[in-house]
């Protein structure tokens, strides 16, 4: 689990990122979860955009993605979800204690 301090740090890092995934009408599927897990291994911190035509509630989408990809949910703001997962191979972010 992330502390409040770590979440604030990650939010500041995520601020400049562009969303690299979009959740649309189909909602969350296994393929998307797999791709997000792979992207997290490379980048550690990503943004996911929820499109207007998505049938699911944004909090449900955020929970499904974080659980499916084994990631920490940093933030849900508007229609954007920020996810973090520490990379085994490409560690880039050093979290504050």
UniProtKB/TrEMBL annotation:
Indicate the segments forming the CRM domain, all copies. 1-96
User: Which top-rank group of organisms is this from?
Assistant: Bacteria
InterPro entries in UniProt: RNA-binding_CRM, RNA-binding_domain, RNA-binding_YhbY, YhbY-like_sf
Query: Which keywords appear in this protein's UniProt record, sorted alphabetically?
Result: RNA-binding
| Protein name per UniProt | RNA-binding protein
Natural source organism: Mesobacillus foraminis
Q: What residue ranges carry the coiled-coil annotation?
A: none
Q: Which Gene3D superfamilies match?
A: YhbY-like
